[in-house]
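Worked example

This section walks through a single chain of length 720. The input is the sequence exactly as stored; nothing has been trimmed or padded.
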Amino acid sequence: MIADFLARQNDALARLRGRSWPLKWLFAPSGNAFEFALRNTIASLFALGIAFWMELGEPQWAAMTVWITAQGSRGESLSKGRWRLVGTLLGMIGAVALVSAFPQAPWLFIPALALWAGICTGLATLLQNFRAYAFVLAAYTCAIIATSALSAPDHVFEIAMARGTYIVLGVVCEMVAGLVFSASLAVKARRAMRGWLIEGIGAASLVISDVLDSAAPSEKAIRAVFSRTLNLNEQLEFTVVEVGRSDHAVACAYATIGILSKIVSRGLGMQARLSTTLVVSDKARTALHEVAGFIKGLTERLDNAGALAALRQDLAALQSRYDILYRQSETDPEGGGSFTPDDGIILHGLRLILEEYETLLIYFEARPTEAVTPSRFRLRRVMHFHAAFHNAMRSAAAICLAGLVWEVTAWPQGASFISFIAVVVGRFATTDNTVLVSNRFFYGACLAAVASILPVFFLIPTGSGFEALIVALAPLMFIGGLAARNPATATAAGAYNTFLPALIGLDNHSRMDELTWFNATIALLLGLGAGVLVFRCILPFNIHQVCVLLRRRALHGVQRICAPGRRLPAENRWIGLITQGMERVIRYAGTQLTPFMELNLHGLLSVMTLGRNLLFLRRFALRPGLPAGLSVILANFFRGLGPHLLRTPTMEEAAFAARLEMAIATLREQAGAADVTDHPTYSEALGSLMVVQHEWAGNQLWLDDRHFRHALQQARARQN
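Given that input, the structure is written out below as C-alpha cells.
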C-alpha cells in the first residue's frame, strides 16, 4: 500500500514537472536546482559563521562571495573561484596604489580610478569566460576598496587585506561544499563531455544528410549547429579544470568541435554545388543518398568503443568505393552514358565530406596510440577591439560622472554610489544586450531590498544568536539558489543573491537599524539604477552598428584572402571569426530576429562558405605539379584583387563578378581539352569557383553596398 502511494506521488510529481507554469522553478524544482540551492545555502552560512567567529568587520562579504562564485558545474565554480582570487588580488594592488598616490586629492583620484576601470573592462572584453571576469572583478574591487579607504587612507592596506580575507574564505567554503556534494568528478566530466560531442555530431550530421538528400536544411538549423560548437568550445574550458589540462581526450575534444564546424561548412559548399550543377547522373544521385543514410545513422554507433571501431572501418570502405567512382567519372565522363561531365564536381565534394568525417572520428575516439595534432583544428576566437574601446570609455565616463555627483552633492553615501556604478559597468561590459541584462540585474537588487525587510525589521531583532540568523536567512537564500538555476530568472537571481547579505547589515556587535537600512538601500538602488542609465546613454549597444562592423570585418577578411602577397589566415580562424559574429547577433536578438538581423545572419553564413572556398583556391594555386594552364587561370583570377585605395567597393564588386565568369568559362574550356589524368585537378578548382559564384550571386543584398545601406536605413526607420 505504501509503495503504491509513493508511486502515485512520484507520477504526480513527474506530471507536475512536465508542465510549464510561472513558478515551476520554485514549487517543482529539478534535482540539480535543489542540490545547487541547498549546497550553496549551507556553504554561505558556513562562511558567514566563520567570519563571525573571526570577528571580521564586514562578514557579509564572505556569504556574498559564495553566491558570486557558485556555478552550475564544478568546473565552472572552480574556474570562477580561481580567477576571482586573481581579480581580487589585482584589485587590491590597484586600490592600494591609487589611494597611496592620491590621498586627499579627489580630482586626481577619481580620474585615476576611472582610467583603471576603463583599462580593466577593455581587457575583459578582449578575453572570454572567467579570464574576462578576473579583469572585471579587478575593476570594481579596486573601486570598492579605494572608496572605502578614502576617509582613512592610512588604513588602505588593512582594508584591502580584510576584503581579500572575505573573498578567500567564501571561495574556500564554496569549493569545499562542492567537493562534498560531488563524487567521481573527473569520470562524470569525461562522460558529460562525450555526451555533448555526440549531440553536436548528431545535429551536424542531420544538416549534412539533409543537404545530400536535396532537402535543404533551414538556416536556423545551420546556425544552431554553429552556436552549439561555440558553446561547447567554451564549456570545455571548465571540463579541463575537472579532468586536467594535460588530458589527451580534452585536447582531441577541442579538435572535434573545430572539425564539426568545418563539416557543416563543407555541407554548405555541397549545397551550393548541387544548386549550380544542373546535370547529375543516376549513379551520382545514388551515391548522395547512400552517404546521406550512412551519416544519418552515424550518431547511434558512437557510444560503444566496439561499434566505433566498426564504424571507422565502414567509413574507410565507403571512401574506397567512392574514390574509385570519382576516378571513373573523371577518366570516362561519357562512358556508357553512366556519368555526366558534372558528376566529378559532385563526387569530389562528397569525398571531401567523407574525409572530414574520417578526421572527426579519429579525434572523437582519441586513441593515445594515434599520432594527432589537435591544435590544427581547434576553433580560435577573434578579439573585438572596437567593443573593448567602447566598454573602456563607458566605464571611465561613468565613474567620472559618479565622482562629480559625489563632489557636487557631498552625499555621505557617495563612496558607495561610485562602488555600485563600478559594479554594474564592470560586470556587464562583456555582455551583448547590456540594456536588457542590466535591467534584470537592477530588478533582482530591488527584490533583494524587498526581501531584506523581513529579517531586518522582524526576525533578527527577536533573536540574539547565530541560530536565529540562520532561520532568518536560510529560506531566502535557498529561494535565490532555485531562481539562479532557472534561465528566465538567473540574471535577477544573481543580483538578489549578491546583495541580500549586504542589505541585512550583518555585524558581530550590532544590528542594522531602520535608518541605516534605508540609507544603504537607497545608495544601492540609485547606484545600480545609474549604472543602467549609463548603458542606455553612454555609447549604448546598437545592434545595427554591430552588424555593420561584422560585415566590414568579414569583407576585409575576404579581401585579405584574395590579395596576393598577403599571409593567408588559418581556416579554423576564418570559421571562428564568422561564427562568433553570428553568435553575437543571435545572443542579442534571442527569438526576436528582425529582417535586418536575418539578412546579416544569411550574409555571414554565405560569406563564410565563399571565403573558405577562396582560401582553398589560393592554397590550391600554390600546389606543386598543377597543369600550366590551370595555374595561369588562377593567377589571373587573383591578380589585382584585394583592398585598393583608388577603387570604390562597387568597382570591386563588378570586377570580381566578371573575373568569376571568365575564370569558370576558361576552366571549362581547358578542362575539355586537357589530358584525362588532369581532369580531377580541374574539377577541384572548378567546383570551388562554382561555389564562390553561387554564394556571390545569391548574397548581393548583403554584399552590395547600396542594397545594404538601404536595408540598414529601413531597419533604423522601423526602430524609430
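What to look for: The CA atoms of residues 136 and 426 lie 5 Å apart.
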